[in-house]
Amino acid sequence: MKNNKVVVLGAGMVGRAMAIDMAKDTDVLAADISASQLAILEAKGIATVQMNLSDAARVKEVIADADLVIGAVPGYMGFETLKTVIEAGKNICDISFFDEDPFQLDALAKQNGVTAIMDVGVAPGMDNILLGYHKQRMQVDTFVCLVGGLPRERQWPYEYKAPFSPIDVLEEYTRPARYVRDGQVVVMPALSEPELMHFEGVGTLEAFNSDGLRSLIQTMPDIPNMIERTLRFPGHIELMRVLRETGFFRKDTVDVKGHSIRPIDLTTQLLFPMWKLGAEEEEFTVMRIIIEGREHGEAKTYTYDLLDRYDPETKTSSMARTTGYTCTAAARLVLGGQYREKGVFPPEFLGADEANVHFILQHLQERGIHYRLTVG
């Protein structure tokens, strides 16, 4: 695999972790518009190129000799970046949290002989993979995913730091949340139905509805109950609801003393410095996946618990680890020829093959990421 070339588009916190991980056994080139982000990788001997990743022609030039591309751009750029890579005929594993329907690109991917695996992070990502695995082996009636990335130290007023693109965090607070109840798709406002829950090793967190099911609504229509909920420290949800209802997340323009501004632009300028996770600031990722149904005629519940923390030795955040290393596992499956299907594939399709699941879990365990399974 060492002779393979991988281009990582995006050198943010997660993109850097993936570039460093892939550099263990492939030739990596990282691309980003930020010189400071790229400098971190250059110090580790990884090749970089500073560029505007929204320039499709330039992206195609940079990935021309790549064996695989990893997409790690903000969600608002994700769909167009994925399209550009597929047009170039390059295989891609992508973690961008974009709003558009990725299956619009399936025919193009098949036509160009491309393997495109999207949403292959922690959630969406690993939860889809595990559901895909069990869906092949049992009748699933209920799927629940609870997930959050949080700072170790709670600080007033928001008690939150963004472990990935902050603009994508705001999408979780504004994008209507879709879930499935009794076989029907239900649409609720983001941040709705808050609920206090206890997690061992963490304490009490607050869950709210978020739009994390994504492809599962389309690919798993016969599962009658599915929901994803995001976790935050208690109190954060109400603050975000107040800001949203006041209009701070609006994307239209308002007049302020003769100047036309979008409230969301002002909000991001004020919030993001307060939400910025420090380079060596400790944080953790907590996730619980519950899969219920019948297996061999008996009621069965599989519960997967994850609690991963910042790694001080490698100075890698838990969100970068849990998201990025799931993606690099998928990348190695494609590069190694274990996954050869052509088209656009959500992670649950990976999970249908037991060998893929074992490979990914082993890949994560080798990097200190452990999913604890309880069977009931």
CATH fold type of the largest domain: Dihydrodipicolinate Reductase, domain 2
CATH architecture of the largest domain: 2-Layer Sandwich
Number of helices: 13
The percent range for strand residues is 25-35%
Low-confidence stretches: none
* Sheet with the most strands, sense and barrel status: 7 strands, parallel
Summarize the topology.
Blueprint: E1 5-9, H1 13-22, E2 27-32, H2 35-42, E3 47-50, H3 56-62, E4 68-71, H4 75-87, E5 92-94, H5 106-111, E6 115-117, H6 126-135, E7 139-151, H7 166-174, E8 177-181, E9 184-188, E10 195-199, E11 203-209, H8 216-219, E12 225-232, H9 236-246, E13 254-256, E14 259-261, H10 263-275, E15 283-295, E16 298-309, H11 318-335, E17 343-345, H12 347-351, H13 354-365, E18 372-375
Briefly say what this structure is.
By secondary structure, the chain is of the alpha/beta class. Helix content is 34%, strand content 28%.
